[in-house]
Amino acid sequence: xxxxxxxxxxxxxxxxxxxxRFTMRNLGFADAAEIFVLLAxxxxxxxxxxxxxxxxxxxxxxxxxxxxxxLYIAQTLMVIVCVVTIRSWRMWTPxxxxxxxxxxxxxxxALWRVLWLDALPSNLNILPLYLVLLASFPLIYALMRISxxxxxxxxxxLWLLINFDPGINFPNWLDPDGWYFDPLAWQFLxxxxxxxxxxxxxxxxxxxxYRPLQLLCGGYLxxxxxxxxxWELWHLPVLRPFVMASPDKSVLAPLRxxxxxxxxxxxxxxxxxxxxxxAKWGQMLAMFGRHSLEVFTVGTVIDLYARLAFTxxxxxxxxxxxxxxxxxxxxxxxxxxxxxxxxxKKAAAA
Length: 350
What we know:
This protein has 350 residues and is an all-alpha fold. Helices cover 69% and strands 0% of the residues. The chain is globular, with a radius of gyration of 21 Å.
């Protein structure tokens, strides 16, 4: 799931890419970002939640701090590469200002705000969210140790408060509304992922399969698909049951939350997904997912150059094929290399 989410996020961040017509954002209220954050909570429990008991508090906190530092370094590198690349590209061909916020496009005086996470440019705002959520994991763990219901109740209450008052947010110098992904709302999805990992571990890695609940989730996803599908883009008759605005992504609106949780439950409770995951292409997606930070960081840089290429040279079919094939190949080689290094390290440790 995480590998698929990473590839869809890379595709979605290139507006001119024809492949983003086929990602999950066109098939429901939620998109790959929700999957990414939910699985971040799931993986955090597996990596650190169990680590407190296995390795001790001090060692687990050290590992958490190291991971947070890695996230910050990756965010900093992406910002620097984006600013330098766009300004260099602009020297010989026009580039729309929206490739960077105007404050960054015309001067370096605001760069320090980006490094302090006080200013988050578009397409560079999900790693800071992950960093904040991961840094808060010790508190989440402590609450879950007392009572998972207590942790879910407090987390859900905070999420509900933010949905009633979206003005409560972290400050963003580039946007008066604050962070695009409001951490105070998105933390609920992170906590749900951690609680899901605990529940799944008690059933051999799966969630119990309740047929009525599976049918209910499937029915909701069908409604979500009808409502969110871009019928006009495909020149098809509009089959939306209701006329309504798209659910707010910044505060993780209830319809988006229900969408991603329905997907998660169906995947974790259906045996067919085990068979898919064991197939060759499933294992390839898992390889991408095992190296999520590196794949996301390099993928974001690939997205930048793809957007620049499409803007400067057009979005012809030849360029579409070239950019997608080259981009996928780079991420595949990167993941294979990291996987081989990981296996070698494990063998040496054994």
